[in-house]
Amino acid sequence: MGLRAYVVRRCLQLVVTFWAFFTLLFVLFRMMPGDPTSMFIMDGMTPEQREQRIAELGLNEPLHVQYIEYVRQLLTGDFGQSFIYNDPVTSIIVVRFMNTIVLMATALIFAYIIGITFGALMGWWRDSRFERGGIIVTLVARSSPEFWVGIVLLSVFVFWLGWFPSSGMRTTGGELGGGFVARYGSLDFLHHLFLPALTGAIAYLATPTLLMRSTMLDVLNADFIEIKKAEGLPERTVLYKHAARNSILPIVTVAAIATGTAMGGSVVIETVFNWPGMGREMVSAVNNNDYPLAMAAFFLMGSVVIIMNFVADLAYVYLDPRVEYE
Amino acid sequence: MTLLDIDGLKTYYGADDGWVRATDDASLSIERGETVGLVGESGSGKTTLAKSIIRLLPDNAEIVDGSIEFDGTEITELSDKELRRQIRWSEISMIPQNAMNGFDPVYTVGDQIVEVIRHHEDDTSKAEARERGRELFDDLGIDPDRIDDYPHQFSGGMAQRAMIALALALSPSLVLADEPTTALDVVIQDRILETIKEMQEELNSAMIMITHDMSVVSETCDRIAVVYGGRIVELADAETIITNPRHPYTLGLRNAFPDISDDDQELISIPGSPPELVDPGEGCRFAPRCPFAEEECWEVTPQPESYGDGHQVECHRADEIEHLQAEAGKKETWREQDLGDREPVGTADEQAAEAEVRLDD
């Protein structure tokens, strides 16, 4: 089977995965105890008012009608009205989603660039001081909870050294840029981004480092590494072009999965650094039984994971010629 | 004209309990265009000997003594950089045991041939290097268009041919072939050996063929060095090693391989296992397994003796050739219990060492 057929089939699978994913979301939310009115009962909401509110939200309709309406809205990119804010979900969530993506992507990119490089060198210089020290540092980073790392960074760089702002995404009173570049490209933003992204990078660093190191050790035992050395190629070529290039394959899969973890982990980092991202919004939406908002948040996060896995699959075809399109 | 002259080479591996003497005092010289076979069991040190020549050794290995003179250059004294620039691949290349694993799986075979050519020849363009790869493929009986295939797309025999193409890409003066055909079936094995032979003659390259297969060396090699316990115990032209060997180990090795022309031949194996090479001490290393070992064999390490025409043997009893050859052909000579009977000959230490070897099995 050719490459094109493979890509087409993967795309079809993507559609099916998405369908399964948003259906599951729908079912899960309908199975949750309570409804959006529960939190108002204490405030003296009468049963009549409650009925009326439920009817307004369309929650008295039969499930299949709700489901069809839900799919129709998703297909048109409409996530509905937030029960709590009474605003369209899209306007609440898209900006926050972008904030989270920018933060997490920065953290992950740094974690993986640093992790892959250090892991490769740790494998190459096996049994050296560098390797032993590297493993210890990596394990310490791996075992430190994100909120703790965040607080330590805050106390050192903000409260003690005063190098970085303590929270938020931009200085109060700063201009709210219109476009993507104006919003995320400004120095003020990058200044705010540094510490939360560093916290994330420290948390996600260990997986690629340790995985890269152990795959390197395997690959370095392969016959072809010996042949490349016998060919008289410089060590750097053997290390990067051959050993590291082969060791990177499993990292691709792990990176896709890590994206999912990072999305979840963003809740903690966003809370510590008061980052206006989606993680925090998602938690409060769940607490408030704000179905449309919570569902949209889950939907976007899940979509990122699904799409990243799709990208990883396609990248694998490019990176490893041995992958069979079956 | 001598191409390679190895003299008193000692390559040791550092282990927890001392040096493993994988190659211990080996001397061997090779002429241009000549093929020399290194024969011995696994763990006899034949691969270490060959890899010492291009210093392709693991980090814990060290050439502790001896010299390797290649075409006037002392290899043990070169810097790593000089070794990479002047010797590796351009002068001495290698063919690994399993060609499929010898190629980096993520690049095409052609890319890897081009990479090595261009690394050593600064003036060669990519297209020229590729063209040379295609010609080599053609010479070796592979469709030149397959140069753009990935290693996993080749069959075993085809991959081995492609590996030979890679090994010959820079017309080296010496090729180290480490069991180049053991991974292949017999019919393909034969064809590959023939191809290697033809190409080698065309380029006038010398070759060191490492193998444990007597039939392979007898077909392809001009001379054969029999390696045991890190030492070259017998060295002679192929004909002599096959028909008229003097070392008991060679005699035993010959017994263990089938001869198609002889229907009644009974295969006889050599009892015991290769020696422990950590501080082996004095004495012949084959003595614990040798049916002819005498007191002297346990106490004095035999030195190479010449028996005319480049025939060298490290054995105290090599003079008694007729007796040895006659006895070695009998199955009862090599019976395991016989070995047990004569053990008291050695010193207490040696017995302890030997008991250890047995336990290790």
Automatic annotation (TrEMBL), chain A:
Belongs to the binding-protein-dependent transport system permease family. The chain crosses the membrane at residues 12-32, 101-125, 146-164, 189-207, 248-273, 293-319. The lineage of its organism: Archaea, Methanobacteriati, Methanobacteriota, Stenosarchaea group, Halobacteria. This is Binding-protein-dependent transport system inner membrane protein. PROSITE patterns: ABC_TM1. GO terms for biological process: transmembrane transport. CDD domains: TM_PBP2. Its main location: membrane. Keywords: Cell membrane, Membrane, Transmembrane, Transmembrane helix, Transport. PANTHER family: DIPEPTIDE TRANSPORT SYSTEM PERMEASE PROTEIN DPPB-RELATED. It comes from the Archaea. Residues 97-312 form the ABC transmembrane type-1 domain. It comes from Natrialba chahannaoensis JCM 10990. One of its GO terms (cellular component) is plasma membrane. It is a multi-pass membrane protein. It is found in: Cell membrane.
TrEMBL record, chain B:
Gene3D superfamilies: P-loop containing nucleotide triphosphate hydrolases. NCBIfam families: oligo_HPY. This is Peptide ABC transporter ATPase. SUPFAM superfamilies: P-loop containing nucleoside triphosphate hydrolases (SSF52540). It is found in: Cell membrane. Keywords: ATP-binding, Cell membrane, Membrane, Nucleotide-binding, Transport. It is a peripheral membrane protein. One of its GO terms (biological process) is peptide transport. Residues 326-361 are annotated as: Disordered. GO terms for molecular function: ATP binding; ATP hydrolysis activity. One of its GO terms (cellular component) is plasma membrane. It comes from Natrialba chahannaoensis JCM 10990. Residues 4-254 form the ABC transporter domain. Residues 326-344 have a biased composition (Basic and acidic residues). InterPro entries: AAA+_ATPase, ABC_Ni/Peptide_Import, ABC_transporter-like_ATP-bd, ABC_transporter-like_CS, Oligopep_ABC_C, P-loop_NTPase.
